[in-house]
């Protein structure tokens, strides 16, 4: 349920309404996701033999290559640069709600949930998806 006293996303978390440090809005999130998935598809095609528009008789593991590369990009870059390449390009940063470092296990759990899609499209009044709530993170504007 939404807190009636809350007037903007992130207020309960002590985040500003707009500007740096405010909750990253849906447009930037979708742009970051598109950038990350496009990069993952290009990398999968270049190094893992994935062909976006080909329909081989036996696709095998290559049909999952972009999603695997996407997950690896998330897991590697979130703890090292504070977000995926797509996040950083569109001006977002993933942080812990309490301000601590995200660590190593949180990006893994968050990414596994993100790959299942449903946790990412169900979000609260602070615009935090279930994948972020599960690990205690929030995506903010850098």
Describe this structure in words.
The protein has a two-stranded antiparallel ribbon. Helix 1 (26-48) crosses helix 2 and helix 2 runs antiparallel to helix 4 (105-115). The two termini are 28 Å apart. The chain is built from six helices and two strands; from the N terminus they run αααβαααβ. Helix content is 46%, strand content 7%. The longest helix has 23 residues, at 26-48. The protein has 142 residues and is mainly alpha-helical. The protein has one domain (26-52, 60-141). Residues 25-135 form the RDD domain. It is a multi-pass membrane protein. It comes from Microbacterium azadirachtae. Keywords: Cell membrane, Membrane, Transmembrane, Transmembrane helix. It holds the Pfam family RDD.
């Amino acid at each position: 349920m939404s807190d009636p006293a809350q007037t903007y996303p992130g207020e309960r978390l002590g985040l500003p309404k707009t500007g740096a440090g405010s909750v990253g809005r849906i447009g930037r999130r979708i742009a970051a996701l598109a950038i990350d998935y496009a990069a993952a598809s290009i990398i999968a095609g270049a190094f893992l033999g994935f062909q976006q528009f080909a329909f081989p008789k036996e696709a095998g593991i290559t049909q999952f290559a972009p999603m695997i590369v996407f997950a690896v990009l998330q897991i590697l870059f979130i703890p090292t640069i504070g977000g995926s390449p797509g996040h950083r390009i569109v001006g977002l940063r993933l942080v812990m709600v309490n301000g601590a470092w995200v660590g190593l296990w949180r990006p893994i759990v968050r990414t596994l949930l993100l790959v299942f899609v449903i946790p990412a499209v169900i979000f609260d009044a602070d615009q935090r998806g279930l994948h972020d709530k599960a690990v205690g993170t929030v995506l903010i504007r850098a």
